[in-house]
Amino acid sequence: MLFINLLVLTISLNNIQSWILAKNFFIEYFFLDYIHIPWHFLIAPFFYMFLINYLEIEKRSKNLLKIVLPVFLLIISIRIGFVSFFSDKNTADITYLFEKYTSIEEIFSLIVSLIIFSYSFKILTKKEQLFTKILSFDNLKWIYTCFKIGLFTYVFWIIALAITVALDFKEFIYSYYPLRIFTTILIYWLGYQAILQLRLLKERKNLRKQLNFQPVIKETVSKNEEEKDADKKLLFDKMHSLIQEKKLFIEPKLNADYLANELDVSSSKLSSIIKLFTDKNFNDYINVFRIELAKELLIHKEYTNYTITSIGLESGFNSKSSFYATFKKHTCLTPTEYKKSLIK
After folding, report:
1. Is the pLDDT of residue 192 over 50?
2. Residue 72 to residues 49, 65, 66, 76, 90: CA-CA distances in angstroms?
């Protein structure tokens, strides 16, 4: 939460500062008009710090802030020195020089940010073995979406800088308007997603840690069960117990191949046995376990304030939409309706 808040704050300060400059609020105050802070230099480092902390690999990753913050302070010092040195010069001349300097400085910031952004993406895609624990709670799709949005942000930033250079460092503020609009939208999206996902992560960890009861799943078999092959029934019972005792169903990626390998049979034979004794396909059969667990969690007093999404995900569903659809298919009620009907 610390680094995601710092990230949102930094983007906000950068946009507010640009708005103040565009409105010429400090035009009568020479020093204040030129000493604005290069907040953009901190955006990528804060995102990187958020990422490694969210993935819980901060102890095995580089702390880039130890490098970036001194450089950031140095840049501010250079700006102060620049203004102090040129304070007695012609205003038009210093304005041109300052805009030229800040653009060069910003190009440096852009290059550094792109390097950190690329390095962060490399961590996410190439080092999954370092954060397998977090992958059991979050598929990280929203993080990948952050990278996609971030890529568009860099495109707008590059265009704005290119226009600034093409115009010989004049009227540079206006070329940044599309970027400011886009980053403003990013602030709200990122803030919402981060708060939501961090809450889901916390709840899912608590659920998995505290969960110490087994959902009661009744074997749905047809009336002429006794007439069926005894070996098949024995295999079905073994599979049923294995799924329930080890809670295999809470793994969203559980498939017939994995379960068949555990039981040392072919996946086709496993599927046929499930169909024989339950009249369901593999996915529907596994979803029965998930729904029963979700039903117990929804009405459990200890989890009353937990989000329905975290309960659904921790029950084994891979998304909120699939949980709602499957739950309604099995109970004819949405999870919300089911919870309200039983909790007085």
Report:
1. yes
2. 16, 10, 11, 6, 28
